[in-house]
Design a protein that fits this description.
about 230 residues, Alpha-Beta Plaits, four-stranded antiparallel β-sheet
Length: about 230
């Protein structure tokens, strides 16, 4: 069976996930995570991806990135994946693949961007690893509330709409994440990602994919329910 073509639009954000093979651990130490982030920064800069958010879980990774070209995302993930796999195998005296097949990716409706970023930064809490996002050492949440920063992260235009000053944006983001998300929204994001389908509104789908509606269709479970669009959390 032919591989499903990825839906990538240059300049539009993508939610990306990569898992360890057989759900095995990818990160055994803070050094492993630091190296992965450093190499992510280098690959994204080299191949033209803006990185907005991340969550490094023990056996998988969530990323939110905007590719500049059609090939930017694939080249970034391929370069990062090969480099980290070589390091991991050498470090832990093993061989073979460390990844569970291809990475998953989901194009994100711009009006849904902040919701997807929240989903990613709440991943450790949702998985039961942490009691609050503030306790997560290896997500981008701290950078977005003015704590431990990753200066190479690129704030999306919708994040900038949260306030006129850094403090205002940080406070609004903290409150938005604190409010959490409804379970059905988490389900939509997860299902779209696992099936590598865009997470978009009907309005966006009809505008961008009207000639290829099958691109956004998730069969057997119906259309996603409508959600309120957000341009601000104030």
């Amino acid at each position: 069976m032919a591989r499903q073509a990825r839906t990538v639009i240059p300049g539009q954000a993508m939610h990306v996930m990569v898992r360890g093979n057989n759900r095995e651990t990818l990160f055994f130490s803070p050094e492993d995570r630091r190296i992965y982030l450093d190499w992510l920064r280098e690959a994204a800069s080299q191949f033209g991806c803006a990185v907005h958010a991340f969550a490094l879980m023990p056996n998988h990774v969530h990323l939110l990135m905007t590719p500049q070209t059609k090939d930017s995302l694939a080249k970034t993930m391929q370069s990062l994946g090969r480099r980290y796999a070589q390091y991991f195998n050498q470090q832990h005296h093993r061989s073979g693949t460390i990844w569970e097949g291809r990475y998953r990716s989901s194009l994100i409706d711009p009006d849904y961007f902040l919701r997807c970023q929240r989903y990613i930064e709440l991943n450790p809490v949702r998985a039961g690893h942490e009691s609050s996002p503030q306790d997560s050492s290896w997500t981008s949440f701290a950078s977005h509330i003015g704590g431990k920063t990753e200066p190479w992260l690129a704030d999306h235009q919708y994040f900038w709409k949260l306030g006129n000053t850094p403090f205002e944006r940080q406070m609004n983001w903290a409150n938005f994440v604190k409010d959490g998300a409804p379970h059905w929204e988490d389900q939509q994001i997860t299902e779209s990602l696992l099936r590598s389908k865009p997470w978009v509104s009907d309005i966006y789908a009809n505008k961008v994919f009207k000639d290829v509606p099958e691109v956004t269709q998730i069969r057997d479970r119906g259309r996603p329910r409508k959600i309120k669009l957000i341009n601000s959390v104030t």
